[in-house]
Structure formats: C-alpha cells, structure tokens
C-alpha cells in the first residue's frame, strides 16, 4: 500500500503544479515554436513578460496525424 500511496502523491504533485496559461497582452512580444514529424504536429505560443523578461505559456496545440494526413 505504501508504494501505491507514493505513486498517488507524485501524480497529485505533477497535476497540481502544471503550467498555467497566461492571458495575452497586445503590446508584449510573442514567440511561436512549432514542430512536426510523420505522426504528430505541435505548437506553443509564449509571451515575454515585461516585468521579469521570462517567457510564459499563452496557448499550445498538438495533434496526431491520420495515415492520410
């Protein structure tokens, strides 16, 4: 039971400390990062904060491709 409890606690920590999306601000710089392979495509939209200069997540997208795509 101790092993299961530790696994649950780790899972709970990961889920509750996930990144939080920020609301975009019109005047601050944006950055788009995109990647693709034969099986999946993805992109991340970030925005730089004027107060600390760090990049924060605004939106993300990922999609598995069908055989036709």
Task: Please tag this protein with its features.
alpha+beta; flat; three-stranded antiparallel sheet; 38% strand; Ubiquitin-like (UB roll); 69 residues
Account of the 3D structure:
- The N and C termini lie far apart (45 Å).
- The longest helix has 15 residues, at 2-16.
- This protein has a single domain (21-69), classed as Ubiquitin-like (UB roll).
- A hairpin with a 3-residue loop joins strand 1 and strand 2 (40-48).
- The chain has one helix and three strands.
- The chain has one helix spanning 2-16; strands at 30-36, 40-48, 55-64.
- By secondary structure, the protein is α+β, with helices and mostly antiparallel strands.
- 22% of the residues lie in helices and 38% in strands.
- The mean pLDDT is 89.
- The protein has a three-stranded antiparallel β-sheet with strand order 1-2-3, with no helix packed on it.
């Amino acid at each position: 039971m101790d092993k299961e409890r530790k696994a649950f606690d780790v899972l709970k920590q990961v889920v509750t400390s996930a990144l939080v999306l920020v609301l975009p601000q019109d005047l601050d710089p944006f950055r788009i990062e995109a990647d693709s392979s034969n099986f999946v495509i993805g992109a991340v939209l970030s925005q730089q904060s004027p107060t600390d200069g760090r990049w924060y997540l605004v939106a993300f997208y990922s999609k598995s491709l069908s055989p036709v795509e």
